[in-house]
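Provenance and format

Records in this collection were gathered into a single text stream. Each protein contributes a sequence line and a token line. The two records reproduced below are adjacent in the stream.
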Amino acid sequence: IEQTQEIIDLSIHDAQYRLIRYLLSKCSENGEHSCKPFVELTISKALLASRFSITSETLSRIFSQLKKQGFITINHEKIILNDPEQLKQLIGEASLQSDRFTKQKSF
């Protein structure tokens, strides 16, 4: 199921959505109630970028945008999620927009 979701994400959602979804999934890996507000990057940014089918530069731009907007704080290899609920809302809105796009496209 996880691979199917990754294929859907790659074909429908933008890179920012995919990165936020990844960060939230790593944050909640131990269950929703034990969610730590940070993610320790255990892979290189280049490898992370390739996972999302984007360049390292694009990944850096997305991290910079999220940081500038106050959603995350970056401390070396630790990504602190300042407000995971706000990030969930952000990708919820993106998901609704892409659903509308797919419905329009199918007509």
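Adjacent record:
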Amino acid sequence: ANSNSSSSSSSSSSSSSSTSSGSATSTCSAKSFDKNLAGTYKTTADLYIRNDAGTNKKALGMLPKGIKAVCYGYYTAFNGAKWLYIQATVNGVTYTGFSHSGYLTR
């Protein structure tokens, strides 16, 4: 639906190792479940979505402020904070991983 791409399929020189597969998914599982956390959230800031709970964990991608993210109730508590296991789509890429609940609002 983005009409700003002028159908020139010249792949930009900064080709990040074929992440255009359409998804980036965490290899870690959430440790806990709370059905009250399930729902649709919005990011309140530019937010990294990570492979696991914790700011020291590998970032899978960046979720821009105001984007929609879905949580199915799974999360991991780390350093006193809940890291929600969420799914969000940015520029056609679906990210599934952990983001700090402090930056997600319903």
